[in-house]
Amino acid sequence: MEYFDFKDGIKLSRLGMGNMRLPMKPNSEEIDYEKSQEIIDYAMANGINYYDTAYVYSKGDSERFLGFAMKKYKRDSFYLATKWHYDANPNYKEVFQEQLKRLQTDYIDFYLIHCLTDSNMDKYIASGGIEFFMEMKRIGKIKYLGFSSHAGVETLKRFRDYTNWDFAQLQINYFDWMYSSTKEEYEILRERGIKTFVMEPVRGGRLASLNEDASRLLKASKPNFSIASWALRFVRGLDNVGVILSGMSSLEQIMDNVNTFNDDYCLNDSDKKLLFKACDIFHKSLSIPCTGCRYCLDDCPIEINIPAYLKLFNEYKISGYDALEDKDEIKTVGHPKDCISCGACMGLCPQKIKIPEILEELKNLLKE
């Protein structure tokens, strides 16, 4: 496993274990503790020492599971990261105490203000939460304080300069590097010397399986590389990047990722050129940049499984009408035909996807 020097003598694994997409029990929204424990045990056995979760992941069960799973290991053998989201519960003191209880610990190594956006920055600043967590850091309940961001460039600059952050977390992958402001966001942190931790390096798994033409291009160049490993290697080559989080939901995924971080091959200029060419091919076939984060589900009054339907729509765009046959496999309460276009989902979507419009189009497709 590759490591890097963070600060204060701490060495963090370059590959971090994200706990937002843990295995679930069949026909359920409950975490499968047995299968998830196998993944955690494999991670620990293979040198991963950074474990990321959040107050809202799996409605709190991600933190509870992680607290349960890590009790078998010495507390100083791993680092815990979790987050506070204002809109989930503005009572930051209550949240923090609950998180310590869920995680079965008396301190948190890496604490983040969660999901900074253009619309919530002022709420975070006015809340007093940042100052509270700074005090928790002063007394040792938090070791390092940072934030995760889905904000625009100007908001990111303002929040970056609000206090002396220890680190920050950005969504970085080669797709967004080409087609969004990701490169500029990365430089905003880099120029202040704020170490960047990465979320969504494989864009919620979307970059693990490209369309046929893009995949063929990469496989012809490096037959032994998985498609996902190209995404991880791209991010790994950025000099201000520290931990690269991957939400690994199967042993196959974590084994592949560990293999990637067990070798020292870095993409050269020729590799990157080829990767960007494959990305351009893929981009032309992709309709919706959904990462499957599931934030959009929180306030949907109809309880539509939005990520699943957006994935279905993307598959339709790539594979045609045959892909729509998978509609009956989607576990959901509401359906696209039930959408009332209230817009609650759009306010929570980090990717700014116009979800009601897509559900309307999908409703007509499914009717046909």
What does this structure look like?
There is one protein chain. The protein is of the alpha/beta class. The protein has two domains: 3-284, TIM Barrel, CATH 3.20.20.100; 295-367, no CATH class. The chain contains 15 helices and ten strands. The protein has an eight-stranded parallel β-barrel with strand order 3-4-5-6-7-8-9-10, surrounded by five helices. A two-stranded antiparallel sheet has the order 1-2. Helix 9 runs antiparallel to helix 12. It is globular and about 60 Å long.
Summarize the entry for a quick read.
Helices cover 42% and strands 14% of the residues. The protein has helices at residues 33-45, 61-69, 92-103, 121-127, 129-138, 153-160, 174-179, 182-190, 212-221, 227-236, 251-261, 269-285, 306-319, 344-348, 355-367, and strands at 3-5, 11-13, 15-18, 50-52, 79-84, 108-116, 142-149, 167-171, 195-199, 241-246. Strands 3-4-5-6-7-8-9-10 form an eight-stranded parallel barrel, surrounded by five helices. It has a two-stranded antiparallel ribbon with strand order 1-2.
Descriptive keywords:
TIM Barrel; 10 strands; 368 residues; 15 helices; eight-stranded parallel beta barrel; two-stranded antiparallel ribbon; alpha/beta; 42% helix
Counting copies of identical and different chains, the oligomeric state is: single chain
Here the CATH topology of the largest domain equals TIM Barrel
CATH superfamily of the largest domain: NADP-dependent oxidoreductase domain
**How many separate domains make up the residues?**
2
Assign the CATH class of the largest domain.
Alpha Beta
Give the overall shape, derived from the CA principal axes: globular
Strand order in the sheet with the most strands: 3-4-5-6-7-8-9-10
Mean residue pLDDT: 92
Gyration radius, to the nearest Å?
A: 20 Å
Low confidence ranges: none
The proportion of strand residues reads 5-15%
Structural class: alpha/beta
